[in-house]
Amino acid sequence: MPSVTWGVVQGRKERLVSRVIISDYLKSIGVVPDELEQVELPTTVEVMRERVEFLQRLGISIDDMNEYPLLLACSVRKNMIPVLGYLEKIGFRRPKLGEFVRNYPQVMHASVVVELAPVVKFLRGLDVERIDIPYVLQRYPELLGFKLEGTMSTSVAYLVSIGVSPRDIGPMVTQFPYFLGMRVGRTIKPLVECLVSLGLPRRILARMLEKRTYILGYDLKETVKPNVDALLSFGVRREALPALIAQYPPILGLPLKAKLSTQQYLFNLKLKIDPEGFARALEKMPQIVSLSQNVILRPVEFLKGRGIPDCDVARMVVKCPQLLACRVELMKNSYYYFKSEMKRPILDLYDFPEYFTYSLESRIKPSDQRFEERLRADYIEEDTAGPSFIMGGKLDMPGSELVSDQEDNDSDDEILYRRTVSL
Questions:
Q1: Which Pfam families does the annotation name (predicted)?
Q2: pLDDT at position 374, please?
Q3: Is there a contact between 111 and 74 (Cβ–Cβ < 8 Å)?
């Protein structure tokens, strides 16, 4: 509880009189003093007025005081100034102090030495950058009220045990500090076990959590499990779920059933793609659930404008749904190069729609040069199959001689993650 600065030693009668006078003062400025009845108050109105004016200079309004009247039980010199001085010392900008106190007024009751400093030291021990400490505490000020040996330590230990790199804990805290307050047995572990049961290898899941820590905030019963069920009900194959989730983790937290219904209807109406084709496209590019209709239709209209029949455009989209995220300006450049420089029949694009996803300068033009060399027999290159992945097996990457030394030393899960996931 806060320390109180007393003016003089008073008897019981004098204290009652002082309390009445102070209560009348607080009522006169709009503060409801009911919650202060059981709290020791200063002996004079002047001391209380000092507290009120100090808080107002900090940016705390009368309404804020009514939201948390116990602020007025804190001594300016013994509570407020030491706490605010410490917050400023660890990097809080002075104009932000009032906002922080408004969001977490309980901080004024805290002991700098016993409560605040140990939490900050704990965060630094997790490799949270010193400059990020104010940001973390502003997002999740309740951290200052946690016991170090309780939830915070347990959450960190569990995440490390499933493969999260200890050096990534600091950035994870900065990105999503709320996981430090989550119960392992009640929240974190059930979510992890659910995702593993879907076929996600633990190491890939650990990499996902390092980059997208906010996944831990998705409610398992209310959001994650219904979204998995929605994907299956819309035709996504169970064996495709791990790669789909790894490629687009936010899909676990979206209002998914409504989005899937909207996009499936759009695909059927505008793109002439049936539900099965929609499911296959979704497996290859789950981000399509978040694309707007205008974004989707622009590349489709471009392809149709080149004389490609609707049925072939649909087939191209199902084969390479990444087309829907292409910029039409770049597609135009690639298309005109294909026609004027490469002089290839447009039918080739039907079977190789991925062409539009390649960079014209860094991929298409150099490839075209090698193609011409091959025609002149100056360059020989055997056709190779693309990567294949079967859940439960190993990543089969034909042409493994092209894989870097770093990839040779990594596990199959790591190679899969880099090749199928773009976080």
A1: mTERF
A2: 47
A3: no
Q: What percent of the chain has pLDDT over 70?
A: 84
Which residues, 6+ apart, have CB-to-CB distance to 222 below 8 Å?
Answer: none
Please give the Cα distance from 241 to 35 (Å, whole number).
54
Query: For residue 297, what is the DSSP state?
Result: H
Q: Which amino acid is at 247?
A: Q
Residue 144 contacts residue 119 (beta carbons within 8 Å): yes
If we measure between CA atoms, which residue out of 209, 245, 248, 239 comes closest to residue 225? 245
CB 338 within 8 A of CB 368: no
254 phi/psi in degrees, rounded to 5: -80, 160
**pLDDT on residue 375:** 41
Q: How many other CB atoms sit within 10 Å of the CB of residue 215?
A: 21
Full DSSP string of 41-72 = --SSHHHHHHHHHHHHHHT--HHHHHHSGGGG
Closest CA to 84 of 100, 68, 73: 100
Cross-strand bridge partners of residue 388: 396
Residue 105, classified by CB atoms within 10 Å of its CB into exposed (0-12), middle (13-18) or buried (19+), is: buried
- Where do we find the tokens 């347990």? 154
Sequence-distant contacts of 166-169: CB under 8 A, at least 24 apart = 166/127, 167/127, 168/210, 169/126, 169/127
CA-CA distances (angstroms) from residue 379 to 18, 281, 367? 98, 35, 12
